[in-house]
Amino acid sequence: MEIVYMQIAMVLSLIVKCLHGSLSTTLQETNSQQQPADPEPEFEGTIQNVTFPAGREAVLTCSVKNLGRYKVGWLRASDQTVLALQGRVVTHNARISVVHEDMRTWRLRIRQLRESDRGCYMCQINASPMKKQIGCIDVQVPPDIINEESSADIAVQEGEDATIVCKAVGHPTPRVTWKREDGECMLLRKPQSRELIKVEAYNGTHLHLPKLERRQMGAYLCIASNDVPPAVSKRVSLSVHFAPSVRPTSQLLGAPLGSDVQLECSVEASPMPVSYWLKGGRVLPSNFAGITNGNYEAGQARPEMLLDGPKYGITEERHGFRTNMRLLVRFFSPNDVGTYHCVSTNSLGRADGTMRLYEIKIHPGGVQTNDDQLNIIGGLAEAARGRGNSSANSLVTSSKPLHLILLSVLTALVYCMR
């Protein structure tokens, strides 16, 4: 009997233990339902990408809520380099700092931006799994012309091709524009054509100039810009070389004794020529030098070189590759009658122009002049052509009949043709 009571006691003990365990579990579950777990951290919004010029300061902003026991770090996205953890900077870059505001906002600041700072940066929360956001910085760099890869001043002969180059770097990629320094329109040849057209500017790093003409000579500006100030420019001088050409403004001039007479020639040449005046003789082209006495016709007196002084006034006026040569013969006398030559020479050749100066007879009561100087070109008064040259005076006819004036001109022509 005693054994039976002992077995009943053991069963009751087991039942009590089971009931106690179930109650404890129920209480624990109830407590756990009454104490919810901490919320997971989350990002508020996104990180805005920013663009700044080099040398300025860039700021990336990362906003986090429910951070709790977790931490925020900043990394460079390209190589996962850790820049900062919480409010402490761990990189050795003194230009980088982190600002922590109101327990929700984390700002990454990079001062004195360099081109190497361009790229994307990661704001990271060390949750499980890890959470991240990425923002990018674009660093703008003003243009800079690479002199080593750009053209220097060049010189080519007329009719040849030339290409001038201008290379520039910067971010964004610079635009390269060509213009003339003097503000005039550029002359560019149409493709597959001989025609030159006027354009204000040309866009491109390579300016190709086929079959150059002298009119295209000048200084060109290469201007590089990318909307990041300042724009930069480079000057390239283009010289087109050719042999001289000479054109007298008149071939026959007449003047009364005692007046001042001005002779003039227009010269085009490049490089800059050496120009001078000769009197008398006959000057031959330079290719005849081998069969004659120098450049002067055999059997004639050697021309006299004229120098600036009391008798002759010699001046030159240059405009690019054009030159105006002027010779002033003071107090015209019978010894000044004859042939005059304006000569111009450079490394590519030589040219000259010839003018004949004769005396016009002035009879009392006949043809008069208002000034000291009278020019008759091609047998006609220069004033009658409306040139308005200060060195030429109009003819004023008085009582002398017109046929006598024409007879004087014809007489002078016959004299000069001897």
List keywords for this structure.
single chain; disordered C terminus; Ig_sub; mainly beta
Radius of gyration: 48 Å
> Largest sheet, described in full?
8 strands, mixed
In whole angstroms, the N-to-C terminal distance is 179 Å
The class by helix and strand makeup works out as mainly beta
* Poorly predicted tracts of residues: 18-27, 287-294, 367-405, 414-418
Number of extended strands: 30
Shape: rod-shaped
State the share of residues found in helices, binned by percent.
10-25%
Instruction: Round the mean pLDDT to the nearest integer and report it.
Output: 82
Distinct helical segment count: 2
* Portion in strands: 35-45%
Task: Compose a concise summary of this entry.
The protein has 418 residues and is mainly beta.
What does this structure look like?
Pfam families: I-set (PF07679), ig (PF00047), Ig_3 (PF13927). It is found in: Cell membrane. Residues 41-135, 143-239, 244-358 form the Ig-like domain. It is a single chain. By secondary structure, this protein is mostly beta strands. Mean pLDDT is 82; it is low at 18-27, 287-294, 367-405 and 414-418. It is 11% helix and 43% strand. Strands 11, 14, 17, 19, 20, 22, 25 and 26 form an eight-stranded mixed β-sheet that branches. The chain contains two helices and 30 strands.
